Amino acid sequence: MAGPKCTEEPQAKWLTEAQMTAKFQQRGYRDDVKKLHVSKGNCWEIYGHDKAGKKVEIYFHPITGAIVEANVKD
User: Fold this and answer.
1) What's the CA gap between 12 and 3, in Å, rounded?
2) Given the DSSP bridges, would you call strands 44-49 and 35-38 parallel, antiparallel or unpaired?
3) What is the model's pTM?
4) CA of 20: how far to CAs of 1, 31, 47, in Å?
5) Residue 43 near residue 4, CB atoms below 8 Å
6) Nearest to 59, CA basis, from 70, 50, 51, 48
7) Given a cut of 80, is residue 2 above it in pLDDT?
8) CA–CA separation, 62 vs 68, rounded Å?
9) Cross-strand pairs, 60
């Protein structure tokens, strides 16, 4: 399944990996980010766990930090 399309802006304008990890944690997700990378749609894609311990895959807009898509797995 393909992820969302976020931006065509250059990565120099994006939030850094550290900033994205902090946003992920500030939203209440566990601070156990397993993987953080740029998706094919130019989003920050993060894998981790939510408060209930469920695995999550979340796509963030790389400039605004807004959640574009979130998937919870059992």
Assistant:
1) 22
2) antiparallel
3) 0.86
4) 23, 12, 12
5) yes
6) 70
7) no
8) 10
9) 44, 67
CA 67 to chain centre: 7
SS (H, E, C) the chain: CCCCCCCCCCHHHCCCHHHHHHHHHHCCCCCCCCEEEECCCCCEEEEEECCCCCEEEEEECCCCCCEEEEEEEC
State the amino acid at position 2 in one-letter form: A
Q: 74 vs 31, 39, 51, 68, 70, CA distance in Å?
A: 19, 22, 13, 20, 13
pLDDT digits (tens, 9 = 90+) for 27-68: 888 767 778 899 999 999 988 888 888 999 999 999 999 999
